[in-house]
């Protein structure tokens, strides 16, 4: 009641927030064909300059910008959500069931040939199994992305492709609507992938049409693009397992975090995806290059696109569309320590643009053609053209780079009045990785910053944080002097790296064998000596690898020391190696070690030196002796094969083809032996992942065929 | 006196703030467009009582007409329409918003491609709150309504929606049946696999061919598909045939059209070519290339099938009253000798 009174009282107040025109970009609408569905699923420019657009009604229509007329090219498609012009007469389109090459072979302007290039992915009949793309790489291969199904609906009785027999049985998926709503849907998983390669990016061979599974862990990847360096980027939408929307740098065989797709990984033996836990998945996933903070930056990012010359001062950067706002976002990416990451900021925000910015393409004159859509969600309709006229001088961030203690920001225009810099605000927060839908901003804090000029142009400034950087945090700037005052940078890496071993950003596990001495180099290794590693991070020169054999020769002058793998996240793994210990020599292969290099050790030793069984070769050093009937080859003359299996609590040492030592963490045996060991005072002994360490114990030693394979804990 | 008013305003202002802080906010904004033909799209929207909702108003009218959007108290549409006719020297300055106490909120006057957004707190009281454009000459035809806590009925009979908008939506909903035969549409359709293709031919003959298992699924006579407006659909909808089925192959996803000798290999769909608008499907079975071209006759459907280089007998799945130009029937299959497989016809009578 009260609100009615107040509504009436203030009824004279008009709404104020009318979007102003952008000072440098102009938005004009492009009239779509009257009476036809104006929702755009795909856009490209034909070589003849015409715009090809795929629409929600299943048609591909071509627009001639000169005559401003539309003509029908193809029809009858099933939810086309991307197209690529091959030439004036041929268009490759991704529609729900397949990737199709559509051609006009008789030159009448209308397609007459629909060739199925790839339909090797599955369809359960669930509405959410959209298919997106294609984009084409430099070699002419295509990449497409496949949505997972939503438990908002079950599947259909008939499917296409193989059914995944893991989790809720197939017949439960087309039970009655009530049964579905009353509980089955929960067992299916919020988003599910029960037919092949749902939640994957797949490559389609440009010549044969063969489908090659490329990367997994996607949820709703409505947009793919290559950058100027040939890196593939794919967007994904906030939801279960996605705390906020993301942009991924897609690399072969990487997993990006949504587990529904994981069982389609070759050789997968783990649990059904609904039973997987965030803790298990955390270390498997490759984090996003960019987070789009929900509601602040974007709710549903769509297609990225590379900015060409002529569209303002941002050539080489990328743009990305957004469904839920009248916003086109600009990306500023960089590579830090081999990780692609960066910032996002609006470019066009309102400015007369409709919502539902689904597809983007640049025409030959560097005008950005925008296709809108909504389907059953919030969005928009029709098409627009955004062009750069550059008439108005406007301020925005041109580029931003992370530095070891802050950021370097480059503005478009000089900032003459530097008191304005004091108005810049910065906060940071991160997001949870969990099966729940979305995440709030967590560990949020305002940061005090100081800005100093980076040069004498008054355009570049160093932003120094008063506190150290935090890994996997989103840094949100408010820049009042800019047309677009909001800018977010996703920090994964900083120059020089993060020192903390507690980093969330452990590199993706590699389930294939990794040759730790590959190509006769020690690139995977660094100095692991407690005393010298900070001064000399590189491997000491007494360690030499040649013809596949790694030798430590202590008879020479130079620097030795323990060496450790640069990768320090090994916990569940299988390590195979061969060793030749010198006469009366001592070395060892240590694992699950901490910063002080304390951890488990496979003893490499000449047993002639000492008679203590629990310190003998192949023992779990100082904890458990190997079996007495172990077969040992002659020190200084013969090679021995060693193998370590470390999976969860279970530890095995193998010697020359046989298990010689086995122990279970936390078993009564473990507790007893641990209490008797020299490690009994070590807190958290061997409980954390760590690097693999090869010991310099003052003796000569040789290793070869040193290979490691990480293991899923469920294997 | 003035001071007192000011105090009261401040006090009310304070209350307003307090109340706003407690007002629940709708997660989804409402977007309303002004579109070609003096219409709002959508012409009716829903809001939760007592919820604050962001209204986005966009002028998408390509005919260069300015538009505004005013939200009114229930039952006041006619009054405000009348008030909008009185143009004074002040009108332009006011963005053509008439002076009327039934106006709860108003956008700016927008020219083509401008947009405006503002918050509207839906009253606690259920009701139908009209919205209208009051640019001179528009109010009588350009209106719609916000349904606050109330259900809406059949659009055709909704007095709160303008006739122009009703006509447009009716046209949209009928587009499903407005096809020019022959017509091909890939879609979800009942009783077929998810990669189905529906085809409308002459003589009101229609069929569904399944690209998932490369076979004719069923055929029907009459209208093509039941009409439906798919413009706001996410694709979940299963289309329904509009006529009577005269042949149904039944079976399931593992029923394939062709068995070569005794093996039943999964066929591989390769697409189709349009011959005068009619699709000729192409697929591979056991390395053999097959084309299938279905034509309508006044009495049913004729399928012309060509299997290249068959070395063994072909068994073609054709249950029911199907007759073949070649071969002999064995149960649900017609067995065709390799030399005859290069070109044969099946007839599906439509009774």
Describe the structure.
The complex is a heterodimer of chains A (715) and B (351). Chain A is mainly beta. Chain A contains four helices and 47 strands. Chain A has an eight-stranded antiparallel sheet, with no helix packed on it. In chain A, strands 35, 37, 38, 40, 43, 44, 45 and 47 form an eight-stranded antiparallel sheet that branches. In chain A, strands 36-39-46-41-42 form a five-stranded antiparallel sheet, with no helix packed on it. In chain A, a hairpin with a 2-residue loop joins β6 and β7 (90-95). Chain A starts with a helix and ends in a 5-residue tail after the last strand. Chain B has 351 residues and is mainly beta. In chain B, 12% of the residues lie in helices and 37% in strands. Chain B has helices at 2-22, 77-84, 163-174; strands at residues 30-35, 39-41, 44-47, 52-59, 70-72, 103-106, 115-121, 127-132, 143-148, 183-187, 196-200, 205-210, 215-221, 244-248, 258-260, 268-275, 278-285, 288-297, 300-307, 314-317, 323-324, 328-330, 333-336, 344-349. The N and C termini of chain B lie far apart (91 Å). Classes of the chains: A mainly beta (715), B mainly beta (351). Chains A and B meet through α1, β1, β8 and β9 of A and α1, β4, β6, β7 and β10 of B.
